[in-house]
From TrEMBL:
<keyword id="KW-0732">Signal</keyword>
<keyword id="KW-0325">Glycoprotein</keyword>
<keyword id="KW-0645">Protease</keyword>
<dbReference type="GO" id="GO:0004185">
    <property type="term" value="F:serine-type carboxypeptidase activity"/>
</dbReference>
<dbReference type="InterPro" id="IPR008758">
    <property type="entry name" value="Peptidase_S28"/>
</dbReference>
<dbReference type="GO" id="GO:0006508">
    <property type="term" value="P:proteolysis"/>
</dbReference>
<protein>
    <submittedName>
        <fullName>Lysosomal Pro-Xaa carboxypeptidase</fullName>
        <ecNumber>3.4.16.2</ecNumber>
    </submittedName>
</protein>
<dbReference type="GO" id="GO:0008239">
    <property type="term" value="F:dipeptidyl-peptidase activity"/>
</dbReference>
<keyword id="KW-0378">Hydrolase</keyword>
<dbReference type="Pfam" id="PF05577">
    <property type="entry name" value="Peptidase_S28"/>
</dbReference>
<dbReference type="InterPro" id="IPR029058">
    <property type="entry name" value="AB_hydrolase_fold"/>
</dbReference>
<dbReference type="InterPro" id="IPR042269">
    <property type="entry name" value="Ser_carbopepase_S28_SKS"/>
</dbReference>
<comment type="similarity">
    <text>Belongs to the peptidase S28 family.</text>
</comment>
<keyword id="KW-0121">Carboxypeptidase</keyword>
Length: 424
């Protein structure tokens, strides 16, 4: 097979481990798949080590989406040259932040890649493009509609959503009492002292959010081992508690499905940095400013309004930088996205599952014949990019088949255009 006929599939790195966990693998010998890490994540560290790279704002200055895209542009160009495949088309893949990079790179470097599959890519989660309550409303709805089976009998969860909703006031009330924080730390088996009720809130909120993201139909190991349909297991644990069980004991039993499914953890760190999040904190404090609020009437979370002033103060204290909340829309767009993508965009697939809370910040309807939204009701966070299994449901198989068909069409069009130019 001549190298000039290769089709490189390039998977763009994201926050988790730097290299995407790509299960969408080409079956054609003419295709080459490469996965490339994002600088500052995983093993891709400038300055020789993570300690040096993360030393201060000056050494972190190159941790930006724009810098990542420029690096990928150079890498892909060199890759094609080294393979003597300069005329070969390139397809980009990415999930979550990697999906955002894939879509943005297709828009910013259309001469580098002929198409992009952007899975679970919240490219609209900036400024006020989508309602600020969207993310937490989707998380909440995943718990609200939870159903599970016991002895082949299906049950609608009767108390999961309501128990979580009630727990915040209990946590706040207990935390204000004398020795209340110690009581909360003991109830939730924390390894150290609890500094504030907010720390516990963030720990629980993080669990519920990730559960909504990774509510996959089969067991996975994301940051820790999880069962199939983990939200069902959380709600079952909460519902199975005996009548009269203390509300926080029920919450702990439920959240342990996420933090301690194996049962091996003796205690829990509420402020533990899960792989790569320090880097994401930097990006969130500089350019990836995604404003979110929670509404106690429409969600299971307490009322929390987005406050840019306090957000900026936290960034100044942590990194000695001020956020640029409008930079992403300035560099990559977002406002009036239908018109912009319809006029200037092509060959982009935005794939989303509606269980994923990030889907609310993505493109959920077709913009044109070649900027296409593939939406699945029961899909979770970039499920289509995970490894195919014999247990994959029909709708997931169909989604991937649609993606393959569109991508093959882009490649065919590319070669037809090349032939037409050659004949001239």
């Amino acid at each position: 097979m001549p190298l000039h006929s290769l089709v490189p599939f390039v998977a763009l790195g994201s926050v988790r481990h730097g290299v995407p966990r790509l299960g969408f693998k080409p079956q054609d010998d003419s295709v080459r798949l490469g996965t490339y890490p994002h600088q500052y994540y995983g093993k891709s560290m400038p300055y020789g080590s993570k300690d040096e790279a993360y030393k201060n704002a000056s050494t972190l200055a190159h941790l930006t989406a724009g810098q990542a895209l420029a690096g990928y542009a150079l890498l892909i160009t060199d890759l094609k040259r080294n393979l003597s495949a300069e005329a070969s088309p390139v397809i980009l893949f990415g999930g979550s932040y990697g999906g955002m990079l894939a879509a943005w790179m297709r828009l910013k470097y259309p001469h580098i890649a002929i198409g992009a599959l952007a899975s679970s890519a919240p490219v609209l989660q900036f400024e006020d493009i989508v309602p600020l309550e969207t993310y937490y409303n989707i998380v909440s709805n995943d718990f609200r509609v939870c159903k599970y089976s016991v002895s082949l009998i299906s049950f609608q969860s009767t108390s999961c959503f309501d128990t979580i909703k009630k727990s915040w006031d209990v946590i706040s009330s207990v935390g204000r009492k004398v020795n209340g924080l110690d009581h909360l730390a003991k109830t939730f088996r924390l390894c150290g002292k609890l500094r504030s009720s907010d720390d516990l809130y963030n720990w629980l909120e993080s669990a519920y959010s990730y559960l909504a993201m990774v509510d996959y139909p089969y067991p996975v190991e994301y940051e820790m081992p999880l069962p199939a349909h983990p939200i069902k297991e959380v709600c079952k644990a909460i519902d199975d508690s005996a009548d009269g069980t203390y509300v926080l004991d029920r919450i702990f039993k439920g959240v342990s499905v996420y933090y301690n499914y194996t049962g091996k953890a003796d205690c829990f760190e509420v402020d533990e940095d899960l792989d790569g999040m320090d880097g994401w904190d930097w990006q969130a404090c500089t350019e990836m400013v995604m404003p979110m609020s929670s509404d106690k009437n429409s969600s299971m979370f307490p009322e929390r309004a987005y406050n840019y002033t306090s957000y900026a103060e936290e960034c100044l204290n942590k990194f000695d930088v001020m956020p640029r909340p409008t930079w992403i829309t300035t560099e990559f767009g977002g406002h009036d996205y239908k018109s912009v993508l319809g006029t200037f965009g092509s060959n982009i697939i935005f794939s989303n599952g509606l269980l994923d809370p990030w889907s609310g910040g993505s493109v959920l309807e077709n913009i044109s014949d070649s900027v296409v939204a593939l939406v699945t009701e029961k899909g979770a966070h970039h499920l289509d990019l995970r490894g195919a299994t014999t247990d994959d449901l029909d709708w997931l198989v169909a989604q991937r088949a649609s993606e393959v068909k569109l991508i093959k069409g882009w490649i065919d069009d590319y070669y037809m255009a090349k032939k037409a130019v050659f004949k001239m």
